[in-house]
Amino acid sequence: MLRAGFAALAYLMIPVMVFTGPVSALAAVEAIDQSPGYKPEEDTDEGGLWMMVEDAERATKRSPLLVKDEALNTYVRTLTCRLAGPHCGSIRVYVLDIPHFNAAMYPNGMMHVWTGLLVRAENEAQLAFVLGHEIGHYLERHSLERFRKAKNTSNFLAFFSLIAAGAGVGIAADLATLIALGALFSYSRDQEREADARGFDSLVQHSLDPRAGAAIWSNLIEEDDAAPRKRRSPFFSTHPSPKERFETLTARADEIASFAGETVLGTQRHREAILPHRLAWLLGELKRAAYDEHLVLAERLLQTEPRSGELLFFKGEIYRKRNEEGDLEAARAIYERAILQPDVPVEAHRSLGLTALKLKNNALARRSFETYLERRPDADDRQMIEFYLQQL
Ligand SMILES: [Zn+2]
Q1: How far is the CA of 20 from the centre of ligand 1 (A)?
Q2: How many CB atoms within 10 Å of residue 168?
Q3: Ligand 1 center to residue 126 CA distance, Å?
Q4: Which residues constitute the domain of residue 215?
Q5: Residues lining ligand 1 (ion), CB within 5 A?
Q6: Does residue 276 sit within a domain?
Q7: pLDDT average, residue stretch 340-348
Q8: 56 vs 150 pLDDT, higher one
Q9: Which of 214, 222, 244, 324 has the most C-beta neighbours closer than 10 Å?
Q10: CA of 162 to the centre of ligand 1 (A)
Q11: φ, ψ for residue 234 (rounded to 5)?
Q12: Centroid of ligand 1 to alpha carbon of 28 (angstroms)
């Protein structure tokens, strides 16, 4: 189920949050904003659309994937509010623990932010670009336009009748539902273009680094390039080149660079907000088993924090789990560096022990397992580790 879900995800994530260009360098976004607090009449097609999405929102609130941490939610919501201005009260942010880069906006102001986005954004400005892009979809009422084209398709109605049936009995949105929901609310290339312009304008308006949009895009390209061909998202092969889009966003940033004044990245604020969750989210990424892509992510994060014990542990885990020629040796070397760092997770000792076991380095395995049990006396897997120790 999970594997199927994620195989689909590589495709499904694409239409929701895309940087389709080119965006004209000085394109002013035509303002067709809905007024703050806008709500459609119930007997209109838009009213019907909102009602359906309200059921999905109730299911989102009960989702086991919902990240409830108050500090993290405050960080994302405060930034969203700043960018949304007078529309702040109309947009509700739900952080969902899904290890893939994505954010999605729904017509009634429900916004999903996936943890795969939070862990990939390097700073507040990069996150703001994506949030600004999503707010753009909301203000332009893009989903209504799409709905009017798609409402007769059986998929759309079948999906929502499922949600509505479940809503009465307290359905909680699972991974498959959330992915399907995101896919239903995909946008056209022109709409993505408009949303991109909105995202870029958000940065400029709020004195955030205007290069952040291009930066997050270039990081995503790097990850996708590392994926084996068959895994690559169709988006990358069927749309204009990512390089072109990156260049478009860079060109817009260049245009305003001379009069942008002092801009903010917000690296520290972003890091503080995500740090309590980062390791869990990174380890969650490994469920996708996209090891070549994970390595790109690990390397990039390590560039700014080369001595981070948890990032070194993450990198070691990638090699250990990929387990190709030479990987175990590489994992061992990385774990040995990791355990010297003060912020290393205790699990690094266990992983080092398991790796040493496979490498038939019994002395290292013993030392590592003993350290693990010493530092985590109530470990769930104590019996298993003691069993290994007996074999050594
Ligand atoms: Zn979009």
Answers
A1: 8
A2: 9
A3: 15
A4: 2-257
A5: 192, 195
A6: no
A7: 97
A8: 56
A9: 214
A10: 25
A11: -55, -30
A12: 18
pLDDT at 2 exceeding the cut of 60: no
d(CA 99, CA 119): 9
Query: Rounded to whole angstroms, how far apart are CA atoms 204 and 83?
Result: 11
CA of 392 to the centre of ligand 1 (A): 55
Query: Which amino acid type is present at position 159?
Result: F
- In the reported structure, the alpha carbon of residue 19 is separated from the centroid of ligand 1 by a whole-number distance in angstroms of 7
Q: Which residue has the higher pLDDT, 57 or 157?
A: 57
Residue 104 has pLDDT above 70, yes or no: yes
Ligand 1 centre and the CA of 16: distance in Å? 5
CA 304 to chain centre: 19
Listed residues 200, 229, 257: the one ending a domain: 257
359 neighbors 328 (Cβ within 8 angstroms) = yes
3 vs 31, more confident: 31
Residues 115 and 243 in one domain: yes
Ligand 1 centroid, distance to 133 Cα (angstroms): 6
Phi-psi region of 27 (alpha: psi -120 to 50; beta: other; left: phi over 0): beta
Number of domains in the chain: 2
Q: Is the pLDDT of residue 17 over 70?
A: no
Tell me whether residue 245 is in a domain: yes
Length of the chain: 392
48 & 142 share domain: yes
Dist. CA 130 → ligand 1 center (Å): 8
> Minimum mean pLDDT among 24-38, 249-263, 321-335: which range?
24-38
Last residue within a domain, chosen from 223, 257, 291: 257
Cis geometry, peptide bond prior to residue 228 (ω within 30 degrees of 0): no
Report the separation in Å between the CA atom of 106 and the middle of ligand 1, taken as the mean of its atom positions: 11
- How far does the chain reach from its first CA to its final CA, in angstroms? 37
Angstrom distances, CA of residue 26 to CA of 111, 126, 160, 216, 248: 28, 21, 40, 21, 11
